[in-house]
Specification:
about 50% helix; about 10% strand; alpha+beta; Aminoglycoside 3'-phosphotransferase, Chain: A, domain 2; about 325 residues; Phosphorylase Kinase, domain 1; two-stranded antiparallel sheet; 2 domains; 5-stranded antiparallel β-sheet
Length: about 325
């Protein structure tokens, strides 16, 4: 309640003599939350509440300007109080891609628009501006899987041999990931972070970009097409991926000239992301008490297993997943 009072006092200084109401707009997996400020004339704004002890709004502001300059439709910054962790933003509405799709929106129209915006962001990419999505960070994310998914969520004995197998797999995955050309990476470019904004139809509103980095070009494509919150037939995602690839080549982005090589990079980047996401979702539950992501774990695991089954080099990881899930006993085989 104290922070709500601080927000109300701050808004009163920004809008003297005006009445307004505050209501929850959304929250994310961090300590950050969003409140909608509604005025009697029907207009609205969004307050980002990022407690300084837990969150730093400066990375968000930095990426907002980069993405804005790239031509992406991001919230406009209308006011800021960095000492308290408050930002006043333009309101992109409350309809996410996920909600719009559930209501029957045309998926092809939405995803083609998302592809175009992603290409704009990627074309602006350059080194030295955002943190590198290099080996250290990619590996730290992979390690969430043994630490939280295996260690806390599945909670099974995990011996030295299994750990060595997993580490060897991680090295193979990283080698492919790190060989990719780099661009700006949103890092969570999916149906919950893309908005259908009635005020600006066409281009999606892009939110939750504060963790953006400079890294592998296929990463955001995995987030978009192998979404933890909505599943598409592979034939459809390959069609969208091919459309991206064709547009990216025309835009001068550093994608492989052979679609098969590009697709392999995309698949292996997906393995890294899915392993990480399983670890993150487990941590959100076991450390933070947030159970809302548990229902999404089976789809993420499905993506992971499908890719591991497609590439012989990933067979040891598939077998390890079998062991973790006790599938080898169910199927009558052992390793």
């Amino acid at each position: 309640m104290e922070r709500i009072k601080q927000i109300q006092d701050w808004l009163t200084t920004l809008f003297p003599g005006q009445s307004f109401t505050l209501a929850p707009a959304s929250a994310d997996a961090s300590f950050r939350r969003y409140l909608r400020v509604s005025f009697p004339d029907g207009t609205s704004r969004i307050v980002m509440d990022a407690p300084p002890a837990h969150e730093d709004v400066r990375p968000w502001l930095h990426v907002q300007q980069l993405f804005l300059d790239a031509g992406a439709h991001v919230p406009e910054v209308l006011g800021e109080d960095l000492a308290h962790g408050f930002l006043l933003l333009s309101d992109l509405g409350s309809t996410t891609y996920l909600a719009a799709l559930a209501a029957g929106a045309n998926a092809d129209t939405l995803y083609r628009a998302a592809i175009d915006t992603l290409i704009d962001i990627q074309r602006a990419g350059r080194p030295g501006v955002l943190p590198d999505y290099g080996r250290a960070l990619l590996k730290r994310e992979l390690d969430l899987f043994p630490d939280w998914y295996i260690g806390k969520h599945v909670a099974i004995p995990f011996d030295v041999s299994q750990r060595n197998t997993l580490e060897a797999m991680f090295e193979k995955i990283l080698a492919v990931n790190l060989a990719e050309p780099c661009v700006f990476v949103h890092r969570d470019y999916h149906s919950r972070n893309l908005m259908v904004d009635g005020e600006q139809p066409g281009a999606p509103g892009v939110i939750d970009f504060q963790d953006a980095v400079y890294g592998p070009i296929t990463y955001d494509l995995v987030s978009l097409f192998k979404d933890a919150y909505i599943e598409w037939e592979e034939e459809q995602t390959i069609d969208w991926l091919a459309r991206y690839w064709e547009k990216a080549r025309k835009a001068g982005l550093p994608v492989h000239t052979d679609f098969g090589d590009f697709f392999r990079d995309y698949e292996w980047m997906g393995v890294q992301r899915h392993v990480k996401v399983l670890g993150i979702f487990a941590r959100l539950w076991h450390r933070d008490g947030k159970d809302g992501y548990l229902a999404n774990m089976p789809l993420v695991a499905k993506y992971l297993r499908a890719t591991c089954a497609r590439y012989g080099e990933l067979t040891p990881l598939l077998r390890l997943l079998d062991q973790i899930e006790n599938r080898q006993t169910q199927a009558g085989y052992t390793f």
